[in-house]
Amino acid sequence: MKKRVYLIAAVVSGALAVSGCTTNPYTGEREAGKSAIGAGLDSLVGAALGGGVGYYMDVQEAKLRDKMRGTGVSVTRSGDNIILNMPNNVTFDSSSATLKPAGANTLTGVAMVLKEYPKTAVNVIGYTDSTGGHDLNMRLSQQRADSVASALITQGVDASRIRTQGLGPANPIASNSTAEGKAQNRRVEITLSPL
């Protein structure tokens, strides 16, 4: 990450040296133009801040991977977002929105990391398979997302950081034509994004 910031700084400095210079009409000396200096500083600040967010999320991801090891919860990265996929067999019984003990224990580990890294928004999304009525699945997926959010809040995560949504059978990650596929689609995803 630091190498990227240094590379950007070198490129910006080179660009300033080549294109941002003017000749002072009073002294005849070459000077860097003020707008070029401002643009260069803005670029450097942006690169440093972007690198800082990336590093913040990198460290948080590493801690989450460590906490989630052996729990059945997958941790993936998509840009600056971290996604925790909590399968139904870890979190809830079939047709239930009550957390299983294993799911509650897993969320304790998640909450520990979230409290350590308060500069992330927490989006909790519940999903179901395609079995049953649409309204029932939408309601159940919302209740599951709310249960996960409540567990995180009970563990001390600031409620203002958390948003919940139930999407029912939308966005399947496997085929709903097999029992195994349906089991994969019944899940809760927690997406962490930089604030």
Descriptive notes:
With about 200 residues, the chain is an alpha+beta fold. The chain folds into two domains: about 1-60; about 70-195, OmpA-like domain (60s Ribosomal Protein L30, Chain: A), CATH 3.30.1330.60. The chain is about 50% helix and about 20% strand. It has six helices and seven strands; from the N terminus they run αββαββααβαβαβ. The strands form two sheets. It has a five-stranded mixed sheet. Strands 1-2 form a two-stranded antiparallel ribbon. Helix 5 (about 135-155) links the parallel strand 5 and strand 6. Helix 4 packs across helix 5 (about 135-155). The model is unreliable at about 1-20 and about 45-50 (pLDDT under 50).
Shape: globular
Question: Briefly, what CATH class of the largest domain?
Answer: Alpha Beta
Return the CATH architecture of the largest domain: 2-Layer Sandwich
Q: Hey, roughly how much beta strand do the residues contain?
A: 15-25%
Estimate percent helicity.
40-55%
GO cellular component, one term: cell outer membrane
InterPro entries: Bact_OuterMem_StrucFunc (IPR050330), OMP_bac (IPR006664), OmpA-like (IPR006665), OMPA-like_CS (IPR006690), OmpA-like_sf (IPR036737)
Domain OmpA-like: 79-195
Pfam families: OmpA
